[in-house]
Model the fold of this input.
Amino acid sequence: MVKQIVEAAENGKIRCDACPVMCFIADGRSGACDRYANEGGELIRVDPLTIIEGTVSAGGKIVPFMPDHPEDEWNGDLVNARKPFITAVGAGTTYPDYKPAPFIVSQKQNGVDMVTVVTEGIFSYCGAKVKIDTDRFLGPEAAAVRVDGEPVGHVMTGEYGSQMLSLGGVHHLTGGSKKEGRVTCDALLRLCNSEAVEMVIDGGASIIVQAGKAPIINGAEEHRMRVGCGSATIGMFAKQWKDMVDEVVVVDDHITGVLSEHQAGKLLNIAPTGIKIKGRRSTPGRYFQVAEPGTGWGGTNIDDPLIILGDFDPKTAYPGLRMLMVSTTGEQYGYYILDDQLRPELQTLLPAPVQESVEIIAENCEPALATVLFMGGAGGSLRAGVTTNPVRLTRSVKEALTHVSCGGAPAYVWPGGGITVMADVTEMPSNSFGYVPTPALVAPIEFTMRLADYEALGGHMEAIIPIEQAIELAERKVAPTQGSWPTSERNFKWGA
Ligand code: SF4
Done:
């Protein structure tokens, strides 16, 4: 366990100053966040300090043939399997940040002296962006998302085959009632630690979301992400349908496609069928608003697709005309033949090639997943734990001289002011996130750069320790879950 310096004690209790709560902790007890404890008068970080170690399966596959530097000569380690990287998970915080970050470690990367600064940031301004692969209607845009009745975020946009939620943020964490802040913080903590969270959307669905798992919507597990919108589906499969059927309608909440009118149908010389779609025609063979959003066919609210059709034009349609109606996931489908009155009659048996084509749509759907991206801004005080001149760290990140990672996982740095990052929580070590009851989320963040660049930005040079010293304290070693390595040259402007 990483030991922290005890700055104050009172009546046998020691004070933790890792966050503004400033708990006094009795021997054998932990503080309000369960992250720090008093063990025989020593203040310890409870969660293990975590090192990522390159492994045979996940580490670098390339060994330099003729290394420039003697220290890179082959030592029998085929895949650099023992290459370590210190993460901020379990490292601790440095609130208030007048002092250096908990670990500032040096190591060599192919002969270059590198430094990694690690700290567990306390993020009052943070949230999660959630992508849910489904066409089903989750709720109106901007509707509140609730956990235990408290608003914890809102519905954002519908994207290609996915619905997006924005959760957390400073207004829910600290801007509402005490309960709202507590529930929001708890929901974010569980989501970011890849646990399941149940939410209810105002005017919409009840959902269970867990990072990397299929979403559960109104009690039903979602299986497939749609292959594309109705128009895209026509483009993908038009050739297969050419001689199999006379008409295909792909029902979709976004764009419903009609084969005979679609450009793909025109190029394949599919004859007009006299079909009429009740919806807003966008371009030939592409219709918006054929129904309301819902949990039925193609993310609409319909169970019977025939209600989106008007009467067939008798000048063009004919008895015996064969029509396939299908949703964008292939989950719903119907094969119809026009009777003597030009009314579509549902067939109980599908011709084998039509059945096969429906199965190909389904096969082309990817598994529906929920994705959780942690999003937070590294504030000025956190940056002060890295350098005596915090703005230089921001500039160094923007100039691609400093690489940012979260628990070793690559972090996308937003353009513009500050260091605002997003990271996929499934790429981070398990239980990377904690909380403090202010309320705020605690998340790992690491800054890696060349030693010379660290010195130039006013780094705490006196606090640097070699990686070997840090590894002695590490209790947990995990393999990287992604291909990129935080100290790799390709992350930096000078190594590109
Ligand atoms: S809440 Fe946790 S981090 Fe904050 S002072 Fe208490 S024990 Fe320390």
